[in-house]
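Field reference: "sequence" (input) and "structure" (output). Example, Erythromycin esterase family protein:
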Amino acid sequence: MADPILVQSIRRDAKPLTQAGDYDAIVDAIGDARVVLLGEASHGTSEFYSMRAEITKRLLERKGFRIIAVEGDWPSCYEINRWIKNYTVAAESARGALASFGRWPEWMWANEDIESFAQWLKSFNRNRQGNDLAGFYGFDVYSLWESMEETIRYLRETKSPELEHAIRAFECFEPYGRDEQSYGAAAAYALGESCEQEVVTLLRELRMRRMGTDLRDEEALSAVMNTLVAADAERYYRAMVRGGPDSWNIRDMHMTEVMAQLMDAYADDSKIIVWAHNTHIGDARATDMADEGMVNVGQLARERFGAENVFAIGFGTYEGTVIAGRSWGAQPAKMRVPKAVEGSWEEAMHEAGVASGWLSFRGRESEYGERIGHRAIGVVYQPQYERFGNYVPSIMSERYDAFVFVDQTKALEPVVLEPVFS
């Protein structure tokens, strides 16, 4: 049973999110923050996407935000960016842009909610130019091969003097046949040559070349970012095979660096909106992640940009359905999300009677300062074992600045895949 004092506090502080105008209060609470982190308790819940879209729309319209960075690959997300900005070389439709998400788990971005949001972004951009255009970017680290290919393509098209260097740098990876784990194992255990120095040198050269340019040459920016992905992905896969917190930390440090690079590319006073899992955007120091030596975007953003400039919003649910795989790479399925476990944050929100609402922790830190289990669902999910590994001990008022809750949620609808119900 949930703590009755906690339930009473939530019942008093929670505000509804049942109609469009209710989102204005969240935007008001964000205030002058330049970095807004929007979480999700799972990668497969429709409401988390649609509600983040509603908050993002208002931040674009009312607060001058222009950068959206999501937990996706740079090359695939850049196809959406091209389409919403009406670039000459772009997909013919939003769904055509989403077709670039060909790596598992495709449903994270190739879904109906993102298709609808991309259409809205294109309309928002219709009469805008330059830095006033809203951009959509991926800031994850997984696209090693795709990012290398995009860098080569750009350098070849622009007849860049760095082309030959790039080809030599990326030839180092060829013996591993697009198998990141094979490369990581060989490089980590000195079974083969590490490609780190070649890629890092190329990245330095491309950054020097781009100095003095601005967002009007966004293809040059994209080449730099793809090379940054390659450099950090190389480190990530080497660290992954060794185990421990290093690979996680490399990934979240990469995400934070991409955020900073995007903000620098737009303008001195630019603002950024991030969409990523709660485990990335909620400050790691308020969870047991810190005990394991792990950092994350939520912590790093507060340290890098100033806590007063960052506003993090966690998202959660009590029960419903979700799309996920039962193992890595498995066919996605719509699964039932069981009722939250006793004593969890989600049970307390449910007991408080919050059907769809949010609450701010600012000014209420002491009342929400106890450590409590907080649900987290990944792209791999086995509901029958949820209570044994899907709850992160969290001090909610330190992990987030606010929290959005939907009691009953439903799964995302992919636009390409045909999931089966199980």
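Residues 4-138+271-421 form a domain with the EreA/ChaN-like  fold fold (CATH 3.40.1660.10).
Confidence is low (pLDDT under 50) at residues 417-422.
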